[in-house]
Amino acid sequence: MSKNTKFLLVSLPASISPTNDHDEALTALRSAVTTDYGTVFPFPIPEFKIGTLDALVRQADDLAKLETACEGVVGKVGDSLKTILEGDEEKVSQSKTVNDKPAEQYLKSFHWNKVKYRADKPLGELINTLQKEITSIDNQVKDKYNSYNQVKTNLTALQRRQTGNLTTKSLANIVPPDLIIRDSDYLETHLIAVPRTIIKDFLRTYETLAPMVVPRSAVQVAADEEFTLYAVTTFKKHSQDFVHKCRESKWTPRDYKYKEGGREEENKELEKVGKDEKRVWGEALRLGRTAWGEAVMAWVHVLALRVFVETVLRYGLPLNFVCGLVRTTGKLAKKARASLDVSYSYLGGNAFGRDKKGRVTKDDSSTSADMQAAGHMGDGGDYSAYVCYEFEIR
User: Fold this and answer.
1) Three-class SS state of 328
2) Residue 235 CA to chain centroid, in angstroms?
3) DSSP sequence for 147-214
4) Fewer CB atoms inside 10 A, N or C side of the chain?
5) Per-residue model confidence as pLDDT tens digits over 203-262
6) How far apart are CA 5 and CA 3, in angstroms?
7) Among 134, 111, 88, which Cα is nearest to 292's?
8) pLDDT higher than 90, residue 380
């Protein structure tokens, strides 16, 4: 789907057609939009069980909040897919499907899912079902991606221990076992990573850095582009003082204890965590693909309910309306709505008027305030004479 694609869900009374015929009303909607500003597709919405007027007003408010939540979850799942696919836009786009087809195709061929969301249920129950579903999707994706990030962090830390410099990498594969004093009650071996630029200072001063450093005990163990690793022997009772003075001198003491089989154990752990990372990556990707489609599906059903409730509040009973999906662009959406305003401003009664040149004008701010208080303002706080919701799926 193009990043610039925008959709309008428009509901109009069938009376816009002289015969009150749905097909003719849809044709009239197409004529009002014109192909210059967008393409209109039928968007069938079933009739739901209607409660009291007070209940409908509350449900309109609940649905507005729920739609915002759905849009947020779709965005978060999309961001998670982008992260796990390392920003590969093509792969991300391929992963974003609804019922195994592109989201735009799903919208163009939308039909209410009567199996998942039974249309014979009360509106309040349907809203509650959709609320629980979108919350569950959000929590599942959040938990799985947190698990993946934790495993990935562990793997990165282990890999850094294998590939970093001598101040951070594992020493199990570097330090010979016989270099470490292990069975003495008095002596202890320290491993110190010294920047290569100050090696001469280290060799000149390490013996006098703290009391009871064994003279000439410094042995070079390994070197990389930045540091040289030395083993130095001290008496245990002055070990802490020696380590502290090393840090003051900008040498890095390495905390290392020889462990039998430690090298093999580290390699096995790296292999295990590497396999775990691949497994959880796959699980997170599969869940992200499924969750994105389900979240979009829930969002579109919430939009359908919003249109239905607002249609009842706006046009009254008995219900006889037509709903169309307008595919347009960000730039053309305003022109499409302006064209609809010209054709259907009369539905707004006194809220709309015309200037001397016949152009549609909206009434004063006091009328807008009244409309907003009555719950008939659009998402942008702009009243339209007909039911219309704008959205885009990214």
Assistant:
1) strand
2) 56
3) HHHHHHHHHHHHHHHHHS-TTTS--TTTS-GGGS--S-SSEEEEEEEEEGGGHHHHHHHGGGSSTTBP
4) C
5) 999 999 999 999 999 999 999 999 999 999 999 999 999 999 999 999 999 998 887 766
6) 6
7) 134
8) no
Both tokens assigned to 172? 């199990």
Closest CA to 159 of 236, 58, 50, 270: 270
Average pLDDT along the chain: 90
Give me the phi and psi of 138, to 5 degrees please: -60, -45
- Encoded tokens for 336: 């499409």
Residue type (1 letter), 37: Y
State residue 148 phi and psi, 5-degree precision.
-65, -45
In terms of pTM, does the model score above 0.85?
Answer: no
Q: Which of 141, 157, 140, 172 is nearest to 277 (CA)?
A: 157
Per residue in 43-87, pLDDT (tens digit) is 999 999 998 999 999 999 999 999 999 999 999 999 999 999 999
